[in-house]
Amino acid sequence: MARDADLYEQFARIGKALGSARRVELLDLLCQGERSVDALARTSGMTVTNTSQHLQALRAARLVEARKEGTKVIYRVADEQVCRFFFSLRELAGARLAEVEQFVRRYVEGSGELEPVSRAELLARAKRDDVVILDVRPPDEYASGHIPGAVSVPLEELEQRLASLPRDSEVVAYCRGPYCLLAPRAVELLRERGFRARRLEDGLPEWRLAGLPIAVGAEKRR
Length: 222
Hints:
By secondary structure, this protein is α/β, with parallel strands linked by helices. It folds into two domains: 4-83, Arc Repressor Mutant, subunit A; 113-209, Oxidized Rhodanese, domain 1 (3-Layer(aba) Sandwich). It has eleven helices and seven strands. Helix 2 packs across helix 4 (48-60) and helix 3 (37-44) packs across helix 4 (48-60).
């Protein structure tokens, strides 16, 4: 006869799969879009071998899936429910752990930053064409999915490309989510250079799960 412990052991498989900060990071990256093992290794700063091992642990828990593309192995989240679960986990940590709040205050909110732009506000302003939307994630993440009309300006290129940005419109930067540091750093740089700039309240995965339009394809350069 089945025991309750057997059922709980199955539930615990998810917890065990996410019992590594590195695997949580990989899940966050995969919520941006499917990626190869090599690309995930580059972005996370891990070796390909370690990245592959962590991905296999996530796959064993049915959180991610893989497919072959030539000699490359491409990973993706199993479905949207996985990202929703990750966002709930992130929200719970933010509510229960003081360290998360301290991180947000120190690195994300900054000193005296203006209120972030909501998804609804950005969507309305994009339709009126009175805002410049910057996607400051790496180019491959932009290509796999981005807010329509957004310009791809990876954070490391922003300083060199400021001259291409109009100064008569507010700039709204976004990246991977509410805890991603790319957009806050971009906003800080833009303000230092005299631009009106704010960040989106969250990121591309939340935009996608809200059912808002997504564009795919290579970089739109300025």
